[in-house]
Amino acid sequence: MFETLINNISKSIIGNKEKIKLALAAIISEGSILIEDNPGSGKTTLAKTITLNLGLNFKRVQFTSDLLPSDILGFNILQNDKLTFQKGPIFTNIVLADELNRGSPKSQSAFLEAMEEKNVSIDGETYNLPEPFFVIATQNPMDASGTSNLPDSQLDRFMISFSLSELEESQKIEMLQSNLDISNIEAETINWNEFKSKKNKVNVKNEIYKYVIQIEEIIKSLDQNIHVSARCLKQIIDLAKGWAIIHGKDYVTHQDIKDILPYILRHRIKFLKQEDKFDFVNQEILSKITIEK
After folding, report:
1. Maximum Cα–Cα distance for the chain, whole Å?
2. pLDDT at 108
3. CA dist 230 to 199, 215, 227, 237, Å?
4. Is the pLDDT score of 103 beyond 80?
5. 5: number of CA atoms within 13 Å, CB side?
6. DSSP tag of 250
């Protein structure tokens, strides 16, 4: 099933099969995704294509400096002497937060709080978001005009971060020649309870948990500005389970942790250029841990 999904999505998002697998693994793991790239690189197309292929409801929120929290969450209106709640676009299965770092801090905070809590509180009433609920957020590079940095506490709510890969010449030609209409995508039938059941059955041995704790200890010893919270450690395990499922396994290996860790730490490392972060994770963190066989 996943191979079919990945191949279908790859028809629209050329040359990014690894990123497609990562996105699907994050969704299986009930984690949210942050895609940072330049305008016009295919961020929105990726989010839409994944959503349509999974047969889920999808809404898009374009973040701008004048966007209000009520534009995202919803608001009460008076009808026939009674307050009626009008749901905002966040009430969907997958919400695309487009150019999240162009929004005001107030709107960003309201959106990310709802994303974490999976509910919205308006005038003392709490409304649960649909299940499943995931966020795919995009942001432009931090040096782009009109952007504002997300605080660490908000970035920490995203499970993974990545940019789309640079295309080779042959892939660019394929992209230019393609004439796919993503609105006509035939979705797979998804049973989310089955996904949850599969994830819960993935075996994680104690040595894997110890490996994740060793990673945390190495990061702390570096004395660098890398924010690794308890939530982040949990995300490593959850994403590793999703990564294992995508690859047809019911157990997590050390290699699975190595594969996913750069994408989990990418938005948590602030002192390096994006292109240097993967080498840093591999050379300064993972290479310092000896795995006993």
Report:
1. 71
2. 86
3. 20, 13, 10, 11
4. yes
5. 22
6. S
Confidence class of residue 167 from pLDDT cuts 50, 70 and 90?
A: low
Could you tell me which CATH number the domain at 197-288 has? Answer: 1.10.8.80
| CB atoms inside a 10 Å sphere around CB 49 | 22
Write down the pLDDT at residue 7.
81
Burial of 78 (C-beta count, 10 Å sphere; 0-12/13-18/19+): exposed
pTM for this prediction: 0.86
Both ends of the chain: CA-CA distance in Å? 33
What per-residue confidence (pLDDT) applies to 203? 94
Residue 117 corresponds to which tokens in the numbers above? Answer: 């809590």
Single-letter amino acid, residue 145: S
Domain range annotation of the chain: 1-165, 197-288
Q: What is the CATH number of domain 1-165?
A: 3.40.50.300
Quick one: tokens of 209?
């948990």
Q: What is the pLDDT of residues 115-129, one digit of tens each?
A: 888 888 888 888 899
